Amino acid sequence: MTDERVWGSRKIWAARLIVLAVFFVFWEWAAHSKLIDPILIGKPTGIVQYLWQEVLVTQSLLNDFYWSMGGTMIAFVLGSVAGVLVGMLFVTSPSTEAVFNPIFTALNAMPRIALAPLFIIWFGLGLGSKVAVGFSLTFFIVLSSTVAGGRGVNPDHITLARTLGASESQIFRKFVLPSAVPVIFNGLRLGLVFALLGVIGAEIFASEHGLGQTLSVLAASFKTNGVFGIIFLLSMIGVGISWGMSSLENRLLRWR
Amino acid sequence: MNVAMNPTQTRASAGTVTKPAPGSIIFDKVSVVFEPAKLTAVSEFSLNIAPGEFVSFVGPSGCGKTTLLNFAAGLLPSGARRGTLLVNGKPPVTGSHDLAYMLARDALAPWRTALGNAELGTEVRGVPAEKRRARVLDLLEKVGLKGFENAYPKALSQGMRQRVALARTFSLDSPILLMDEPFGALDAQTKLQLEDVLLSLWQRERRTVLFITHDLSEAVSMSDRVVVMSSRPGRIIADVPITLGRPRSVRALQKEAHYHELYSQVWSKLEEGLSQ
Questions:
Q1: How many CB atoms neighbour CB A196 within 10 A?
Q2: Is B8 a member of any domain?
Q3: Closest approach of chain B CAs to the CA of A84, in angstroms?
Q4: Residues B187 and B261 in one domain
Q5: Hey, CA dihedral for A202, A204, A209, A215, is it positive or negative?
Q6: Same-domain pairing of B229 and B157
Q7: Residue B198 falls within a domain, yes or no?
Q8: Contact A65, A209 (CB under 8 A)
Q9: Does one domain contain both B262 and B189?
Q10: In this complex, which of A165, A166, A255 lies closest to B111 when CB atoms are compared?
């Protein structure tokens, strides 16, 4: 399995750190020497200072972090459960899918962030409107992966099941569902990232709490270091989410 | 008689002990016509298969061998079926517990271990967990997979996967086994091994086997009778009794003169059919 053209993981990590170090040193130097105005690009040391202050000293960002994460998790859970259930309904009843498929495709084509102002009018400035935007993104992603997974069942398995005399529910539980799980998982991973994206996006529009709300306040007052600080934080959260989902997947789908 | 009658069979089988061994298949003027395509796959096919017989169908591609198997398994649309086919004395029904079907591809579920896959058939047919577990573990040992019970299919070779499928098929109580080129995708060495595994499993229980193959040597070495079919629409050209002793070893047969005589006899029949 080892390919001699690929470096060992230690060497790769070292190279990765060097690339990042060069990038941040150059950034710091460009800002420090006013090559580019620090108002526009901030400064790595300023960003670290901001995060240190707000996360560890005053801990003011933690409250926002909990609001954003709470909204993301609620949107993700509701959106995935609804997506898997509707997807399974589509798989087991092709007529239902035929009726709803074009309607859902049109709904999914709407730019959800553009709907955020409407959701804020409907559900208020609190968590409700954030969950609504996150849900509207997650639902369709999980739905389409569930349908794709359910359709991808091996025809040999169906023939085998029929000759064994399996009932419709046995075919579903023992063949269709397990073979759909890996594809559904891909949808879930993407759905979680999109739930975060929807919640943060809605917070940027108008909110009482959350990282998105803080971000827009900082941007409006040209606190570029703070903006970058939150963006890095969000990107770290996204990486964490993907990593967490992947390790869960590897644990649950050892057979692959 | 150690015929495949088993008290665990879930359906009413109380009175069957006095009847002759179950497992006959009777084709009486069976034709298969797919109307939309106006395609006659099989025409006027008549054949009696006695309980416990091992019968192979050989013939060119597309001669309707698999169609006949699908007819017996109840997989054909009712509009395509003509004539009378009796499986264990009854018309074919999809999912009948009278038969076990083994496909050309192993059809293993990748999310189940070898043990889980071998158990799948009995599980679907409602055999109690402990009973099926014991039977499947025994079969996995017999097909040479002891120690691989917990391996997932991705970790198994083609030959091992087909061994699991054999265990899955033989774990079922059915008196009739339908096998559609089960070893078609294997290399020659593995094929010989698995043919012997199949014969040893069959020898213990003597269930009726309807075996489809392209491989004449496979048909001759394993069967009691080899049915040679013409190209489409499939008809019977010859029904050759294989007068070799039992129990057999496929590998030992390769050196036996009588085996080669029978082989060339079947071969010439098949050639006749192709030239018609």
A1: 26
A2: no
A3: 20
A4: yes
A5: positive
A6: no
A7: no
A8: no
A9: yes
A10: A255
pLDDT digits (tens, 9 = 90+) for A8-48: 889 999 999 999 999 999 999 999 998 888 888 999 999 99
Give per-residue pLDDT as tens, A126-144: 899 999 999 999 999 999 9
Are the CB atoms for B99 and B107 separated by under 8 Å? no
- B8: buried, middle or exposed (CB in 10 Å: 19+, 13-18, 0-12)? middle
Which tokens go with A119? 């959701």
Distance from C-alpha of A58 to C-alpha of A50, rounded to nearest angstrom: 11
Is residue A111 over pLDDT 80?
yes
Tokens of B217: 């040597």
Considering the domain architecture, whether residues B243 and B160 belong to the same structural domain is answered as: no
pTM confidence score: 0.78
Q: Which domain holds residue B182?
A: 19-98+178-193+210-276
**B254 pLDDT exceeds 50?**
yes
Q: Which two tokens stand for residue A139?
A: 């639902």
Which residues of chain B make contact with A162, given a CB cutoff of 8 A? 75, 94-95
Closest partner residue to B101 (CB to CB) among A154, A163, A253 is: A163
Q: Same domain for B139 and B93? A: no
Domain count, chain B: 2
> What value of ipTM does the predicted structure carry?
0.84
